[in-house]
Write a structure and sequence with these properties.
By secondary structure, the chain is of the alpha/beta class. The protein has one domain (3-121): 3-Layer(aba) Sandwich (Rossmann fold), CATH 3.40.50.2300. The chain contains five helices and five strands; from the N terminus they run βαβαβαβαβα. Strands 2-1-3-4-5 form a five-stranded parallel β-sheet, sandwiched between helices. The longest helix has 13 residues, at 11-23. The protein starts with a strand and ends with a helix.
């Protein structure tokens, strides 16, 4: 199974995604913001990254840009529920433009998570 990093400032979202992934046998690590997510990624080996877009300190688009520049081929799933007066599609389209391979609009189902993981890991 895969080793997956979840970067999201919302502990409820991290726990939700983690539960789905661990139920499917994946090893999961978490980061609470973009800076700690980048540190975790550089310190370990991850097959896949889930990142929120709107986070404190360093947002998900910045994370995506740094990872895709430094680690070509990195597999990233971006998540967003909108915010700051924008709907999720704006943030997710931007994430795709900067290198996310798949996007999930919050709220999403366990099946949405599983389909995204399967798509990127096979």
């Amino acid at each position: 199974m895969a080793t997956i990093l979840i970067i999201d400032d919302d502990p409820t979202i991290r726990a939700y995604v983690r539960a789905i992934l661990e139920e499917d046998g994946h090893r999961v690590d978490e980061a609470t913001d973009g800076n700690s997510g980048l540190e975790s990624f550089r310190a370990g080996h991850f097959d896949l990254i889930f990142t929120d877009i709107l986070m404190p300190l360093k947002d998900g688009v910045e994370v995506i840009m740094e990872l895709t520049e430094s680690f070509p081929g990195v597999r990233i799933i971006a998540m967003s529920g909108g915010g700051r007066g924008l709907d999720a599609s704006f943030n997710l389209d931007m994430a795709k433009d900067f290198g996310a391979l798949h996007v999930l609009a919050k709220p999403f189902s366990p099946e949405d998570v599983r389909q995204a993981v399967t798509r990127l890991l096979t």
